[in-house]
Design a protein that fits this description.
By secondary structure, the protein is an alpha+beta fold. It has a domain of 236 residues: FAD/NAD(P)-binding domain, CATH 3.50.50.60. It is 34% helix and 30% strand. It is built from ten helices and 20 strands. The strands form four sheets. It has an eight-stranded mixed beta sheet with strand order 6-5-14-15-16-13-17-20. Strands 8-2-1-12-19-18 form a six-stranded mixed beta sheet. A three-stranded antiparallel beta sheet has the order 3-7-4. The protein is globular, with a radius of gyration of 21 Å. 48% of the residues are buried. It binds flavin-adenine dinucleotide.
Length: 374
């Protein structure tokens, strides 16, 4: 029987829910503490690569994800300007294995709902409105104190609480995300029939203009620019003005923007905790431990992989000592660093207008890394 009888997980994002499901399936009592009031993930769409899909298949939720999302295997490169000339259509590497698509776009709340239901069916308790404020650590467990005064005790606690992790700070890790210099506008809109894969347009007023289908009727579109303080209220108008430089499906996207589509703006950030991702009986995973700008769309995959590896180690541990968490970190650190550094490098090349940029070489290295199952 695993040494950990009761595990607390802070955060019901992709990483927290994958971990909750794996542990609950193994008979461990799991409580997920989530500060938001329900299973509604912020943001619009998400692009999931094959290595994320492989983890979802292992959890048994792949059929449902495939039904809700939009799968595709190619990437288009198009030129800015009214013609939107297709410069190339590249075969994407199926990094999750030949029997899974290379990429799947999805509406974030649909993904959150599927993973939450799966975790609950496994027996995990997901508590909403439970914002963790502070931790105290003991030799044989961890106590979490909530903003509302609630107190919970666990054998182990995992911080899956995202970029601005309080758990990370509570265990004395001071590394934090830094801005990389880019900002992204995203809009969730109706899918024109001609959008059947992601196309990227390099050049024009944005570093990247792109879109990703997320279901039969939906897609999200994005524009990456120099980071600046933007007023979200002006989002649709600003995004429509930038989008005027792009043709093809952008003509219809622009009409949605002019009609006030839902738009948000986010700064790109990055960090990686350089030492072990734990202290005593508390460990970190996903964005709490490392984050990358979404230039390669690997953040959710990395969180899901972390969760899967951490679950293996917790389930296998017949007694708990720090080596359980150390082994997890040793299995994850280099792979996560490869993805984080490549994601940052891609952005830096664009910011520097670097003639040295070897984008195909870099993408090949990332694919060679993440194609190996964890
Ligand atoms: C603009 C943008 C676009 C992106 N696009 C993609 C993409 O296309 N593909 C991709 O793979 N990745 C993408 N990412 C990255 C991806 O969203 C993250 O890497 C991924 O969501 C990390 O998952 P996580 O479970 O670690 O954390 P999160 O998904 O951030 O979940 C953390 C959870 O913890 C909760 N929480 C936080 N603090 C507390 C607290 N104190 N108490 C209780 N709960 C708490 C939060 O409410 C949240 O639900 C993008 C990121 C950005 C910024």
């Amino acid at each position: 029987m695993p040494a950990a009888q009761k595990v607390g997980i802070v955060g019901a994002g992709v990483g927290g829910l994958v971990l909750a499901t794996r542990l609950a399936d193994a008979g461990i009592e799991v409580e997920v503490l989530e500060k938001s009031s329900g299973a509604t993930a912020l943001g619009s769409g998400i692009t999931l690569q094959g290595n994320a899909l492989r983890i979802f298949r292992e959890l048994g939720v792949w059929p449902e994800i495939l039904r809700k999302g939009y799968a595709f295997d190619t990437l288009g490169l198009r030129a800015p300007g009214p013609e939107a000339t297709v410069l190339a259509v590249l075969d994407d590497v199926r990094v999750g294995g030949e029997d899974l698509p290379a990429t799947l776009g999805m509406f974030r709340p649909d993904l959150a709902a599927i993973l939450t239901e799966r975790a609950r069916n496994a027996g995990a308790v997901v508590c909403y409105g439970a914002s963790v404020n502070s931790l105290s650590r003991h030799d044989d467990g961890v106590t979490a104190r909530l903003d509302d005064g609630g107190v919970r005790h666990y054998d182990l606690l995992v911080g899956a609480d995202g970029l601005n992790s309080r758990v990370r700070a509570a265990i004395g890790i001071t590394e934090r995300p830094r801005r990389t210099g880019m900002g992204i506008w995203r809009a969730f809109v109706a899918r024109p029939d001609e959008v059947t894969r992601t196309d990227l347009y390099y050049g024009g007023p944005a570093y990247i203009a792109g879109y990703c289908p997320t279901g039969p009727d939906t897609m999200y579109a994005y524009l990456v620019e120099d980071a600046q303080e933007r007023n979200p209220q002006e989002g649709p108008a600003v995004m429509a003005a930038l989008a005027a430089a792009y043709g093809g499906p952008w003509n219809e996207i622009r009409r949605h923007l002019e009609n006030g589509a839902n738009v948000n703006y986010t700064h790109f950030t990055t960090h990686i905790v350089s030492g072990p991702w734990h202290s005593g009986r508390v460990a970190l995973l996903g964005d709490a431990a490392h984050s990358c700008p979404p230039t390669i769309a690997q953040g959710a995959a990395m969180a899901a992989e972390d969760a899967s590896v951490l679950a293996d180690e917790i389930i296998a541990a017949m007694e708990f000592d720090e080596d359980v968490f150390r082994r997890y970190w040793q299995r994850r650190a280099e792979r996560a660093r490869t993805v984080v550094e490549a994601s940052v490098q891609l952005g830096d090349w664009m910011l520097d207008h670097s003639p040295e940029a070897d984008v195909p070489g870099l993408m090949h290295r990332v694919a060679e890394t993440v194609i190996v199952p964890v």
